[in-house]
Write a structure and sequence with these properties.
Helix content: 25-40%
Shape: globular
CATH architecture of the largest domain: 3-Layer(aba) Sandwich
CATH class of the largest domain: Alpha Beta
Radius of gyration: 16 Å
Number of domains: 2
Number of helices: 7
Order of helices and strands: HEEHEEHHEEHEHEHEE
CATH superfamily of the largest domain: Cytidine Deaminase, domain 2
Distance between the termini: 43 Å
CATH topology of the largest domain: Cytidine Deaminase, domain 2
Length: 224
C-alpha cells in the first residue's frame, strides 16, 4: 500500500481485487471507496498494489491483532475500539421466512465446498435476494471479498445483511460493524465476545440458521 508492504494474507487465489479493497475497508485503513486512487492485481504473483489518498498513522499499521481463526488472520484494530465509532441503523428489517429461504440457497451455492468441503462462504443479501457470494479458505477473507465487491460496486451496506457459513467471532462482528451492516446471519454460532460487541452497537445476530430454525442472540427486532 502506497509503496510499502502492508500484509500477507493466506487466501484462495481468486477475487484478489475485491479481497484487497475489502481488507482495507474492514481493517479501517480506508473509510470509503473513493480513497482508492488505484488498485492493481498481479495474478501470477498473487500481489495487490494499492494507492490510497488517506494518511495512515504508523501506530495503526503496526498495531496488528491476530485473529482467532486457524489461518492466523490479521486486523489492524482491537475490536473493542470499534465501539467508540459505530452506530448501526435501525431501519433495515427482514422476514424470518425469507432468511430461511436465502440461507438454504446460500449454503447450497458453493461448488467448491461441495467438491472439497474445505472452504468458507460469505455473502451479502438484501430483503429479497443474495447480492454477492464469495468463497475462500478463510472466514475473514470470504467476508472481505464480499465487502470489497460491494464497496467497489457502490452497494449501500446499511441496507443489507451479512451471511456466513462459519462461526461468528468478535473479529467478524468488528468487520461487519465497520461496514455499517446491521444484521449478520450464520449457519454457525457466535462467540460470547461477538454477542457482547453486537449488543453494544445494536447489531442483530442470528445463528444456527438451517432449515426453518435459527437462534436470535441479540436485537431481534429487525427479524420479522
Amino acid at each position: 500500500m502506497n509503496g510499502k508492504e502492508l500484509a500477507t494474507l493466506l487466501a484462495s487465489p481468486c477475487d484478489l481485487k475485491h479481497l484487497a479493497a475489502g481488507f482495507l475497508f474492514t481493517s479501517g485503513l480506508i473509510q470509503r471507496a473513493e480513497s482508492i486512487r488505484s488498485l492493481t492485481v498481479d495474478g501470477e504473483r498473487w500481489k495487490a498494489d494499492v494507492e490510497i489518498d488517506e494518511p495512515i498513522a504508523d501506530d495503526l499499521v503496526f498495531k496488528r491483532v491476530y485473529t482467532s481463526g486457524c489461518g492466523r488472520g490479521v486486523i489492524f484494530h482491537n475490536p473493542l475500539d470499534v465501539l467508540q465509532r459505530v452506530s448501526l441503523p435501525d431501519g433495515f428489517t427482514v422476514a424470518a421466512a425469507k432468511i430461511s429461504e436465502l440461507m438454504k440457497e446460500f449454503l447450497g451455492r458453493s461448488e467448491e465446498h461441495k467438491r472439497t468441503r474445505g472452504v468458507h462462504s460469505a455473502g451479502l443479501a438484501d430483503r429479497e435476494r443474495i447480492l454477492i457470494f464469495k468463497d475462500d479458505i478463510g472466514r475473514h477473507n470470504a467476508l472481505d471479498k464480499a465487502v470489497g465487491e460491494a464497496l467497489l460496486s457502490a452497494v449501500d451496506l446499511r441496507e443489507v445483511m451479512a451471511m456466513t457459513s462459519g462461526r461468528i467471532s468478535s473479529e467478524i462482528v468488528a468487520k461487519i460493524m465497520r461496514c455499517g451492516i446491521p444484521v449478520v446471519v450464520s449457519a454457525g454460532v457466535p462467540t460470547n465476545q461477538a454477542i457482547k460487541l453486537a449488543k453494544e452497537v445494536r447489531m442483530t445476530i442470528a445463528g444456527s440458521a438451517r432449515g426453518r430454525r435459527m437462534n436470535i442472540y441479540c436485537h431481534g427486532q429487525r427479524i420479522l
